[in-house]
Amino acid sequence: MANVKCNPDLVRERAKCSFDVNELIHLIDGGENATKEKRHFEETIFSVKELQDAVPEEYLSHKDRYENAVRKATILRDVCREYMKKYNYKPNRFRVGHGVFKDVSPFLLHDGMFVATIIGQGTPEQQAEWLPKAENMQIIGTYAQTELGHGSFIRGLETRATYDPKTEEFILNNATLSSFKWWPGGLGSTVNHCIVVAQLFINGKSYGIQPFIVQIRDLNTHKPLPGVKVGEIGPKMGFQTANNGFLGFENFRIPRMNMLMKNAQVLKDGTFVKGMNEKLTYGTMVMVRVGIVGDCSLNTSLAATIAVRYSAVRHQSKIKAKEPEVQILDYVTQQHKLFIAIASSHVFRNVYSWLSKSYLNVMKDLAQGKQDHLPELHATACCLKAVCSRDAGSVVEECRLACGGHGYMTSSNLPLVYGFTIATVTYEGEQTVLLLQTARYLVKAWLAALQGKVLAPSVSYLSDWLKNDNVRWQNTPEGIVKGFQHVAAGKVKAAYDTIQKYIKLGKDYEDAWNLASVQLMKASEAHSRSILCEVSWGEVIRTSASPNLLQVLKQLAQLYLVYWTLETSGDFLVYSNISKDDIAILREKYEELLAAIRPNAVGLVDAFDLRDEILHSTLGSYDGRVYERLMEEALKSPLNQESVNASFHKYLKPLMEKAKL
Ligand SMILES: CCCCC/C=C\C/C=C\C/C=C\CCC(=O)SCCNC(=O)CCNC(=O)[C@H](O)C(C)(C)COP(=O)(O)OP(=O)(O)OC[C@H]1O[C@@H](n2cnc3c(N)ncnc32)[C@H](O)[C@@H]1OP(=O)(O)O
Ligand SMILES: Cc1cc2nc3c(=O)[nH]c(=O)nc-3n(C[C@H](O)[C@H](O)[C@H](O)COP(=O)(O)OP(=O)(O)OC[C@H]3O[C@@H](n4cnc5c(N)ncnc54)[C@H](O)[C@@H]3O)c2cc1C
């Protein structure tokens, strides 16, 4: 990229960067070798001509766009397969996927959830049967859980799997419209198999929801099998190429062994054998929630790169009347909008890495029959997924708005990035629903703290606070982290007390919970923020890097801490010993941090190492040829391929002529 002829503002920005951009790239990637491998892989993918679109896909019809996405998905699969064989390298398909599809792959659910569920929910025999076929794409699948009537409350799913011991089969039925599966990616026209999550019935008795692997289309003709009604749900706000679909069954039979039986089992005679913990059936969702935190980091870095580079190139208005128009990046308000995006991406990445380790540890424990840490993992993954996805959505939108009118152009790619980022707030567990799951855990932890029990590490601050809630405020990163814990503890206590108050007034527990649920949700958010602050600050101070880079990383991590303290200063005034003077000091600190980060802003986004082919943005390309690219892309509009459009003769001219009469 170094030889590209760049916009002079970007050249100047890069020259004043105080740290080694390559060092940060390697740190993010996990080492110099990892960067080399990543770049070689991406070079290979983006040099495949057939993966490049001649016409921007936004000009295609819904159907053509889908077909083009499937075409590219199959080529990408082949190229990746060859690459993996040749280099023994497991590539990050999600990252290049943004480049290849701009939106999302119709195979997203195959990779993200179908294969993962076979691994997580299948017995060794079931894995041996389906995993090789799924991994080499002999079968293509999705994860079909959500229905028209139920997404959040999965115990309420209506699809039925009734066991017939005579034939040793399950009979699948969707008797009501609300029971139709609705949303699964790839279901519309791509997949031939599904994990169907359905209510198990044996001898008229319900045994809760279980996962079944079901073939829904003929492997040769791709026609829906008899008894299967399947189709696509139509255009959405984003995810246009994900091919989300609907599905219903009528007396559709599948063999007994198609129930994934790693946890619970149905024996030949219809005996139901309970698993170690029925919530293990929800395992794929926990895994994907963890993954989404990592995805939030990538999505945020895409938007930050586009908006920061554009802000370095764009000049508008003046700070001083007699001086030239300034780069908009010099406006402190612009820095306020953008630097939190850079900082958030690093925070999400560090927290993702921490959460993934916890996830893997719990999986190891579960394999040995130990489930003590599962509730903590579930609670942590729920609130982090909810808060990171919501933050990522807000930050991406702020980056888009920070690009003014041009941020509204599809060719900036910011609307598309916003579309797939904001979807993460809803899918894999709607944010409020997940925050309330964490709140259940927090309330239990609070009760345990009141009883003097030892708490799990992520909530041990509740006991500390109970012992001493009168800690002197300190304007240091460690002091701020403590402050976030005080806010979280104070909110958990307040929510708990509110529940107790309603119970004393005669409400039953569930009604009291609902009445206190705004507070519970906020307590859960505060808990999540305290984890984000504690973990990210802890990761940064443990990072081994050159002094120059470490200084910048600390500035970003502090910016995140101070930004969120100021954003939620009302909470700090209520729940901690912060004073108005401390807030004034933090405001000053915030301004200092913005000024300190300013010279490194372009270097910092360069260090996300996102190729132009992944960014897909007229505003964010490495060379900063913003206006040239905007014009080049505009000229690709089909309306610009003719000097006079037929609508002139058909409608406009008659209209004008009528007006003359
Ligand atoms: C790998 C890289 C990935 C990168 C990421 C990028 C892309 C990802 C790829 C694909 C994603 C694309 C599209 C998304 C696809 C989907 O959206 S699939 C559908 C997802 N659906 C949901 O997430 C549904 C959300 N709802 C639920 O999870 C549950 O209904 C609920 C809200 C958790 C409630 O369940 P319920 O059975 O009613 O439980 P209840 O509230 O009664 O709680 C009972 C106890 O169970 C505990 N618990 C609940 N869930 C879990 C769990 N997963 N694990 C462990 N424990 C759990 C809960 O804490 C309660 O415990 P108590 O001790 O009783 O308090
Ligand atoms: C882009 C996209 C892709 C998806 N892909 C898939 C897929 O591949 N497979 C699949 O199975 N599903 C998929 N889904 C579905 C997704 O998982 C659900 O939409 C999601 O879990 C939310 O459920 P819901 O739509 O029923 O929302 P609802 O639960 O109806 O939410 C509506 C409102 O009700 C509130 N609410 C609901 N329950 C409670 C409660 N207990 N307490 C307080 N408030 C509550 C919510 O907070 C929200 O404000 C996808 C969705 C999207 C948007």
TrEMBL record:
Transmembrane segments: none
A GO cellular component annotation in the UniProt record: peroxisome
Cellular location(s): Peroxisome
Lineage: superkingdom: Eukaryota
Active site: E428 (proton acceptor)
Keyword Lipid metabolism: yes
Span of domain Acyl-coenzyme A oxidase N-terminal: 20-140
Domain Acyl-CoA oxidase C-alpha1: 282-443
Gene Ontology BP term (one): fatty acid beta-oxidation using acyl-CoA oxidase
Gene Ontology molecular function: acyl-CoA oxidase activity; ATP binding; FAD binding; fatty acid binding
Residue ranges annotated for the Acyl-CoA oxidase C-terminal domain, each copy included: 477-657
UniProt pathway: Lipid metabolism; peroxisomal fatty acid beta-oxidation
Keywords: ATP-binding, FAD, Fatty acid metabolism, Flavoprotein, Lipid metabolism, Nucleotide-binding, Oxidoreductase, Peroxisome
Necessary cofactors: FAD
InterPro entries hit by this protein: ACOX_C_alpha1, Acyl-CoA_ox_N, Acyl-CoA_Oxase/DH_mid-dom_sf, Acyl-CoA_oxidase, Acyl-CoA_oxidase_C, AcylCo_DH-like_C, AcylCoA_DH/ox_N_sf, AcylCoA_DH/oxidase_NM_dom_sf
Presence of the UniProt keyword Flavoprotein in the record: yes
Amino-acid positions noted as binding FAD in the UniProt annotation, renumbered to this chain: T146, G185
Family the entry assigns: Belongs to the acyl-CoA oxidase family.
Name the UniProt record assigns to this protein: Acyl-coenzyme A oxidase
Protein source organism: Diatraea saccharalis
